[in-house]
Amino acid sequence: MGVGRKLKHWIGDERVDLARSRLHEFAEQSTERHLRLAVTGLSQSGKTIFITSLVHHLLHAHRSGSLPFFEVAASGRVVSSRDLSTASEHPFPLRQALAGLSQDPPQWPESTTGLSEVRLAIRYRRPAGLRRVLGETGTLYLDIIDYPGEWLLDLPLLEMSFEQWCEQQTQLFAGEPRAKVAQGWLAQLGEIDWTAPADPAVLRRLADGFASVLQQLRTGPDGLSLLQPGRAVLPGEYAGSELIELFPLMIDHWPSGEVPAGSYLDLLRSRYDQYCEQIIKPFYSRYFSRFDRQIVLVDCLKTLNRGEACFEDMKAALSAILESFNYGRSGFLRRLFAPRIDKVLFASTKADHVTANQHHNLDRFLELIVEEAQRNIRFDGIETRSLALSSIRSTQAAQAQMDGQVLSCLRGISKENGEEVALFPGEVPTELPGADDWNEERFRFIDFAPRRLPLNDLEAKHHIRLDQVLEYMTGDLFR
Ligand SMILES: Nc1nc2c(ncn2[C@@H]2O[C@H](COP(=O)(O)OP(=O)(O)O)[C@@H](O)[C@H]2O)c(=O)[nH]1
Ligand SMILES: [Mg+2]
Fold first, then answer.
1. For 300-358, where are the alpha helices, taking DSSP H only?
2. How many angstroms separate the alpha carbon of residue 364 from the centre of ligand 1?
């Protein structure tokens, strides 16, 4: 403003004065930019590894050439970057993850269960044309937030009463594999008089039982994802809290008439309301509403391996998750806060599990799964695309001869037994599989042990397309 005032006296022209002072203000504002980039996905989709590798490559972007499609890095405009995560309330375990991945033999990091964040400051030189107006350099403050996709599965509860939720879950648990896994637990529900005065210890036992049913469904052979309440699966900061001792009442005969105060049913119903008010809503208003852009990670290959039940369930879970970005439909999201996310990237992780000629199929396959959600998101004015990537490329291309033909194969170390394997993992379908496509032999995408991620001297071959992710999500801000 000071400069503007002086100019006014000197030039004596109101209009010039105004234009100059605006420019000056703009220049001041634009030396610093902030971006809150959220990363989510169901558990094991690859969030921790993705963030670890992305941040590692970013922190080396000023001197390694590992990000050829990330323009600010490739053109040598990154001056330096700093990790400011210690200032955060929930720091992301970057150092531990890197230590494991860079040791010999390298190890995948432990799985994480809550929300955490990395804070980076990236100092960059502006493109030549903008330097004169905006100054030589600028700083982007980049927060990357990791949170479980499972928590987004709770959003629909906000629009349902406890009774409606119970009815919906009863239908869901009538199907396999849920019915079989929950059988014993469901029988316990039948033994209780739900109108009798509640004993909190009994409710706790049942809630623990339900949480372990959900865990079994998640880790069992079908690897289910559509599990509620999300905090019973991944409690985060609510571990051990009474607030998450909640389960759907799935009984044949719902008690009729007035619900006596202090009864089991009364207590369970008020737990449900508390869960909505004290856990779901605060998550959206405190965290979700402050995200600027979102990356959703999906492990498409796992679901193809595990078969139809896993695949269909993941598809349903994913569309439930994507409701959180569908502001048009979710009117109550708008009532909670003013939406601010302007870009959503869907990424199919672990692309190193397939040969390079299948990456395009993997892009396409993910697109098919999220097609409808993407259409709705675009309608709301949000930019979106899908992409296959690998955070830590752990396989190498190889070739094999079979019946006189040359086949593209992969070589890597098996995660399960640590032995070197060479295999032809199969093709990624370019259409959603129908009931006939699920035969045992079709897909063989095995898990690999990580290839060592060096602490220095990073190269483009250590990942697949992380640079494209960075360019799409942040490229426009390095001006
Ligand atoms: N081959 C390969 N495996 C990966 C990659 N990213 C993740 N994984 C595998 O996926 C598992 C889960 O990843 P993690 O990041 O912990 O998932 P999260 O639960 O979403 O945080 C890891 O233990 C690895 O086995 C990758 O880029 N390549
Ligand atoms: Mg994790």
1. 300-306, 308-322, 331-336
2. 21
